[in-house]
Amino acid sequence: MDSHLKEIRLDGEVAYDGKFLKVSRDRIQLPDGSISHREYIRHPGAVVILPLLDDGRVLLERQFRYPNDRVFVEFPAGKIDPGEDHLACAKRELEEETGYTATDWRFVCTIHNAIAYSDEHLELYLARGLTAGEAKLDEGEFLETFTATVPELMEMVKAGQVTDVKTIIGAFWLEKIVDGTWSPA
């Protein structure tokens, strides 16, 4: 169906093999037959949790992100370990980062947040029936949690206080879920 747009990998190499990310450099054939190169990041994928409290507020995090040298407002999220079930990862990450557990989990959607230079995919889950507990942060992980209403979160997006793509997409999904326009799987 889209074969007239497909690029074909001819050969390639790992340009960088880090603990977390790998960078590949491939030689490819373009749809018109010419040869070009693509460099891209290999990422194992991650989960994003949209934690909705019984009172309608959402649980959010503030965390410093080194590449951009600032604190970001985000939904809880984390890397999927090799062979790990996506929902199991979401449950683990929610509890590790926030201390909360949830009794009601719904898959929302998959997003690809950097399609031009990464194969990263993010699996979004709605978590309800939340119970507070004690966070179990990874060594070297520092964050704080807070709550906001969905309208407050949307105002933070509008004002440019939330710029993280997974959180913006999650916020738009939550707005539609809460008002009954959309429903998760």
Automatic annotation (TrEMBL):
Cofactor field: Mg(2+)
Keyword NAD in annotation: no
Keyword hit for Hydrolase: yes
GO CC aspect terms: cytosol
Known catalytic reactions: GDP-alpha-D-mannose + H2O = alpha-D-mannose 1-phosphate + GMP + 2 H(+)
Ranges of residues in domain Nudix hydrolase: 39-170
Molecular function per GO: hydrolase activity
Keyword line: Hydrolase
Any Gene Ontology biological process: nucleoside phosphate metabolic process
InterPro entries linked: NUDIX_hydrolase-like_dom_sf, NUDIX_hydrolase_CS, NUDIX_hydrolase_dom
Family classification: Belongs to the Nudix hydrolase family. NudK subfamily.
Annotated protein name in UniProt: GDP-mannose pyrophosphatase
